[in-house]
Specification:
The chain is mainly α and 314 residues long. It has 2 domains: 20-280, Ferritin (Up-down Bundle), CATH 1.20.1260.10; 284-314, no CATH class. Helices cover 46% and strands 3% of the residues. It has 10 helices and 2 strands, in the order ααααααααββαα. Strands 1-2 form a two-stranded parallel ribbon. α1 packs antiparallel against α4 (57-85). It starts with 19 loop residues before the first helix and ends with a helix.
Length: 314
């Protein structure tokens, strides 16, 4: 089971220049072959399908812990996309003015025609994510090797999106993910070494460019975030620490398994886009809206407040 927190794993600044084409580029990090949907679903299904758990428990715990973190990465990228899309079409409630006209030149029209200027589980070209991206062979060595490759491919994608989009929203998201994805790369390298004796960490970094070259990543590494693996459950999956230990292969810092979820940040409250009737359209019955509000928030209903005042006078 999963416990969900209404927090993001890092803080996202509001964009300086909202852009649907920037949002489309960031979509690759969500629904691309090496995106967060793929990492999350690969590790989730591998943990569901894990055989011989009793004998190989540290490997199971490692994969399960990483899968839990990946859920938050999907959430983070989706919010970055949503922020980059917010305010990119003309706001208003008159459809005759063609408020979505600017979307005709957007690279991904699905953001406007199939959603309310929102993230979708697709890549940068509008191809929807597919379960065909999930690899769960049942062979532990093969699955770990695949996961190592998947995380390295994901890192390459993050670097290229960083180099494509210079908005602070996108770069804050990518910088954080470069560091946390780097943790997963090292974790799978350590797991392969435990299983086979091969020092896979000697290959790092892949691609061969340091996170320290990216200011938005370097600040997280300066806090030591690159050496911490989170055990999200206070009691479950503790044996990941039998793999996640020793030193980091790139800078020699001591690795740490930390119990509990990381510090969270409030997610942005996305503004309404009335031209897309998101969340409601202009012709919603105002009385019905007031009735719903009164049922949900009786303490602010003026009719009930007035009735309560009369009752007190009597």
């Amino acid at each position: 089971m999963i416990t969900r927190f209404d927090k993001l794993q890092t803080e996202l600044p509001h964009p300086k220049n909202p852009s649907p084409n920037s949002a489309a580029a960031v979509q690759e990090l969500l629904g691309g072959k090496f995106g967060e949907m793929s990492t999350f679903m690969n590790y989730t299904y591998q943990s569901f399908n894990f055989r011989g758990r009793k004998e190989m428990r540290p490997f199971y715990d490692l994969i399960a812990n990483i899968a839990a973190e990946e859920f938050g990465h999907i959430e983070l990228v989706a919010y970055a996309i949503n922020l980059l899309l917010t305010g990119t079409t003309e706001r208003g409630d008159d459809p005759s003015t063609a408020p979505l006209a600017s979307a005709a030149d957007a690279r991904n029209s699905y953001h406007f025609l199939a959603s309310g200027q929102q993230a979708l589980p697709m890549d940068s070209q509008g191809n929807f994510w597919t379960g065909a991206n999930v690899f769960s062979s049942g062979n532990l060595k093969l699955d770990l090797l695949h996961n190592f490759f998947l995380e390295c491919g994901a890192r390459a994608g993050k670097i290229r999106v960083y180099e494509t989009v210079d908005d602070p929203t996108a770069r804050a998201c990518v910088g954080f993910l470069l560091v946390r994805g780097g943790v997963h790369i090292v974790a799978y390298a350590k797991a392969l070494e435990k299983l086979s004796g091969v020092d896979v960490g000697k290959l790092l970094p892949i691609p061969d460019i340091s996170n320290k070259r990216f200011p938005e990543a370097a600040k997280h590494e300066a806090r030591g975030l690159h050496r911490i693996l989170y055990q999200f459950s206070p009691e479950d999956y503790p044996r990941a620490g039998e793999i996640w230990n020793g030193t980091h292969p790139e800078d020699g810092s001591e690795l740490e398994l930390r119990v509990g979820a990381p510090e969270g940040f409030d997610p942005p409250d996305l503004e309404a886009e009335p031209q897309l009737t998101a969340p409601v359209g202009p012709d919603i019955d105002p009385e019905m809206f007031q009735d719903v509000a009164a049922r949900l928030f009786p303490e602010v209903d003026p009719k009930r407040r007035k009735a309560g005042a009369k009752a007190k006078v009597r």
